[in-house]
Amino acid sequence: MGKGEETRQAILDEAFSLASCIGVSGLSIGVLAERTHMSKSGLFAHFGSKEELQLAVLRESQQRFAEAVLRPALREPRGLARLRAIVVNWLNWTRAVNLPGGCVINAAAAEFDDQPGALREEVKKSLLALRRTLADAVAKAVETGELRRDTDIDQFAFELAGIYQVTQQGRRLFNDPDADRRALVAFDRLVRDNAAIHE
Amino acid sequence: MGKGEETRQAILDEAFSLASCIGVSGLSIGVLAERTHMSKSGLFAHFGSKEELQLAVLRESQQRFAEAVLRPALREPRGLARLRAIVVNWLNWTRAVNLPGGCVINAAAAEFDDQPGALREEVKKSLLALRRTLADAVAKAVETGELRRDTDIDQFAFELAGIYQVTQQGRRLFNDPDADRRALVAFDRLVRDNAAIHE
DNA sequence: CACTGTATAGAACGATCGTTCGTTAATGTC
DNA sequence: GACATTAACGAACGATCGTTCTATACAGTG
Q: Which tens digits make up the pLDDT trace of B37-46?
């Protein structure tokens, strides 16, 4: 890795955790330069525009998500076990990765859902991909016979996303110590209602 | 209503719908002055600080929410019917009120959950009050015997909030035409799982 | 009509924003 | 060691930010 790539990554590291706290749209070149002990222009040269920097942060987030949430879950056998692993990792990934202020993309979704442009499209792409990943994991649990054949997998993924969002809100805004437990209760109810009948 | 109060309300109207699109933290005195055909200083005098303006927008939002969502639901008989009315009104209130860019407070929750201060506290207070309102409506449905006595009413409200959030995301970010339907499916499942047994 | 307080305007402040430019320092190649 | 390339800097740009101050217009009251 050349020197340029190295500092670029260092900038992204800082931008990533900074954006976690103040949002992707709250990022500023000046503040970021100060935090990385660089000049504004020196930092700027690595990206060419602020929007490109913001996009880089969003892509960085996707990558870390895949490594922290999805990849470890592959160790579990496909089906309900893997689905559960994804959900558990997902709920906790903001702690595992350096995300003091919560998921960057999730926050960005609320920031940019009104403002057309490249950032909105990147967020949309990323979250749609996540929905698809969730739906695939649910579909596998149908194939293994753990969930019923008539399970609405998109509905399942939809509700999972809802559980995630409200859990984050509970943790971050309300400091609710029960948020994690409630999330699992909701997940279990979701699974139970779609579980194949065994007796 | 004096002249001052009148223009203050006009400013708030504009700020309200503007904040809906660009967020409460994205509000700027200059842009707002331009939109209301006022000078920056003239507008500024009505609030004394930007933060006070933002707080006023949040309070305005609470008030409109109560009028658009909660009050009409009081026409329904207490219990499940009223709860359902609240949920339906809630899911649609951004259309009824002038909220082209979605619920202001919900967006603000994501913006400020990391940054301590008066704004965060106002958001927190507002959303906690909503949770309590939801929980009360659920409790009434327990009293009427429509829901089981062992219903976890806070868990119920928790999951309702999740349904709301993911529905907004589906509508606003994904332009998902199924979001409303999925929300009601999720709600019905929530009710069914807590319904009292009738046979 | 004069008087009083409120409501708005205009100009300016220092700060920060994203961006551009020209130059220097560091790195890699022959 | 000379050269080419890349990386980083420092200064400045015009724009906008929230805020302050002073002055002018307006409203209501006697």
A: 999 999 999 9
